[in-house]
């Protein structure tokens, strides 16, 4: 990707990673980008870097705008390695005595990542930095989504450099929201569901804080994906909506199956839910990536999980998705468990306990059927589905 001037004197000098398909457990079937921003003023500023193996490509991009050695200041908004991995290479090239501005926690993290030989300059929220015709303001955003995270805001340009917030794992030459259009929103939703959901309460507070500060935001530049220049309010409003976790009249049935008995149960439960008019999707775990499932969980009211009993426990893929989901702490959900078994049948209780531990409103103790569900058993599943659907109608917005 060549450098792109996104505003007068400001360039995206980042790179596209076309080939990545797994981002620490997140499926990135369309790759991703590592955005980095060069601000050319009396002082030349680089905001964030890229993944280590792309550092030379980023330096080549910068070279098409200015000699990288003319960079006076580096700002590290986020120390996760996909944005800081290229920092040692950059500093070695431009001079290790040049200042690296970061949050206090960023300072701590960078030292632990790369040692203390760089000229780190820890900043506080609200602190300003004049770089010539522009003034940059730092805004700490702890736990969005690491302790070090911060934003940098250009008062002159009304641009918010938002590190990982408002991003998407999306690779493409189309760099702006007005070019990609609404097709970007599913990517943004998936990113939120899998990266930021855990921090939803902090997002609401941050939006409130930014509103109180009266920041005029006319462009948002995240470290991944497209830049919001036409309608930055659209992604801010979406974040507020997703953070509130007000679920729709929707159920998702997440299951795995050994000899198809749990599959038959899942489909019969889905039939019962559908009879109530509630939107429902049965999802076979091994046919769907966990990050896609989590995206569906985001706005579902009922989370129905099924597993056969294997060796007195859960099917491994069911344990995997429950562990993943628990870490992201979805809220305001109805939980229900079901499953088939041969002789012991522990899986349903194990699922029930896992969902209860997530503070879901559990429907009951769950439904289990021995071996293969017969006509009566499938009828019980449909009735269970109707019970779930009625609960959704009673609680969903």
Keywords:
alpha/beta; 7-stranded mixed sheet; 6-stranded parallel sheet; 13 helices; elongated
- On the 0 to 100 scale, the average pLDDT is 96
Q: Whole-Å distance between the termini? A: 44 Å
- In DSSP terms, counting alpha (H) and pi (I) runs of 4 or more, how many helices? 13
> How many strand units?
24
Query: How large is the radius of gyration?
Result: 24 Å
Strand sequence of the main sheet, in spatial order? 1-2-7-8-9-10-11
Percentage of residues in strands: 15-25%
Outline the biggest β-sheet: 7 strands, mixed
Helicity level, as a percent range? 25-40%
Low-confidence stretches: none
Shape: elongated
SS class: alpha/beta
What does this structure look like?
It is a single chain. With 397 residues, the protein is of the alpha/beta class. It has 13 helices and 24 strands. The protein has a 7-stranded mixed sheet. Helix 7 (200-213) packs across helix 8 and helix 9 crosses helix 13 (375-395). The longest helix is centred in the last third of the chain and has 21 residues, at 375-395. It is elongated. It starts with a strand and ends with a helix. 49% of the residues are buried. The mean pLDDT is 96.
